[in-house]
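User: Good morning. I'm curious how zinc ion would be positioned relative to this chain. Could you predict the structure with it bound?
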Amino acid sequence: MVMFNVTRKETAPIDGQKPGTSGLRKKVKVFTQPNYLHNFVQSTFNALSAEKVRGATLVVSGDGRYYSKDAIQIITKMAAANGVRRVWIGQNGLLSTPAVSAVIRERVGSDGSKATGAFILTASHNPGGPNEDFGIKYNMDNGGPAPEGITDKIYENTKTINEYSIAEDLPDVDISAAGVTSFGGPEGQFDVEVFDSASDYVKLMKSIFDFEAIRKLLSSPKFTFCYDALHGVAGAYAKRIFVEELGAQESSLLNCTPKEDFGGGHPDPNLTYAKELVARMGLGKSNTQDEPPEFGAAADGDADRNMILGKRFFVTPSDSVAIIAANAVESIPYFSAGLKGVARSMPTSAALDVVAKNLNLKFFEVPTGWKFFGNLMDDGLCSICGEESFGTGSDHIREKDGIWAVLAWLSILAHKNKENLGGGKLVTVEDIVRKHWATYGRHYYTRYDYENVDAGAAKELMANLVKMQSSLPEVNDIVKGICSDVSKVVNADEFEYKDPVDGSISKHQGIRYLFEDGSRLVFRLSGTGSEGATIRLYIEQYEKDPSKTGRDSQEALAPLVEVALKLSKMEQFTGRSAPTVIT
Ligand code: G6P
Ligand code: ZN
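Assistant: Good morning! Here's the predicted structure, ligand included:
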């Protein structure tokens, strides 16, 4: 057995290591500064209780972006030096964020061990490569992101750190081959186990969904399918699940080879960045000549996000979670006993609220950030939840789950088409969505993103919006002056949340303007960017009349958009005449 020694290295605090909504995300050039990663990892170990470090079993993997392989070796050497007993690594360092959550919750190691936590190496949907982003976040033993109590402690530690421990002489581990390598250190044995990235996750999916029913749908000549992994880690799962398990054509997979730089693209599954899929589905300007597939979906870099498309048809994430919730019990075996409750993030449209009300389900509105759903799920209050930011998931794990969302949609389609695959007309994605609108009403919805805006300017814009909230009559005068078709603002506030499980309070979670007819304008600063500030503007309008639910959404929302831009003085503050991305 190879032996290693522990070295204590002197270091000094480095500014700016405050974890954001989902961990620490910075440019690779920032991460590769001497001691940058080391300081953060040691600060994390120091923030955890002793049993989560000494003798613990730690998962270390991620979306495979540039610098991951080096980071895995560094973290492994630091884990060894800090008394961790085992490090588990997905083959080639690849594990999607949902798969990490599944591995923590479900996997049993070759020696019967269970994981106590994970370092996930990803910057999610941010681009990768030497000049782009890297990221790291810590997940707890429930499979979910560390709560604020821990991330605050990590940050405090980064401000005072003066040394870290590392096993410098531990040889680099070959992460390309599955197997266990054992080493001996001052505190005893240390194992590194490299395992297949997909098996545990595939097993979990098979226990949730009726794979046979989905297989029938996917192998029917009537149903055509396309999945775009945008060169993220979802590719490592897509082939196994969609092709090998469910019988989809290999040609239905786009960009499913994980790449360190995501092929130079922006691995964010939306109408702007998933260009190839959008074109193939017959959406956007670049309509293809070929008949588009019936169903299309995409994932982000770490495969926790999803975008669902029908033929020439976009499903908003807010509608997607509402539709999954409305159909889950009859279409997905995991939910056959009923739903415990449902939840959405505040800026997500109220489509889910209407379903919850109709089905008499517990309902929660939480701040942006998946971790807020975790407490509800751990307490048995919530089965299905979703966010406007292309995140959908359930209590099978404690992260959102891109492939789960696709399987949920395929389950609904399989159920609705049970009788139609032989003869009869296929019920399409668009049919399902339009029927949903006719039943529950439609929440017209759009999001405008202003990326990389000057941070000072963004702050001023937000401060001005808060200031205006103290005088609604003045706001309504301005609104009437901009557009007389828009209803009246009846309430305006900053969203504040009291967690029903632990009683913790989160303030300043988004600025809201609420209108008499149920319309909403929400302004938020993104918590996931790595440069400047990103302003998000969420615009929503409810239409109950079934004869009016079929309009083009940008057209239906135009008056409200105009009000939002003028009321916030968007161009004046940011100098931008148009958003970077519209979804
Ligand atoms: C991450 C989190 C999501 C959250 C999103 C918000 O993806 O996992 O739960 O919705 O960030 O991003 P934003 O950039 O709007 O803060
Ligand atoms: Zn992600």
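The pocket of zinc ion (ligand 2) is lined by residues 97, 124-125, 300, 302, 304-305 (CB under 6 Å). The longest strand covers residues 442-453.
Let me know if you'd like a different ligand tried.
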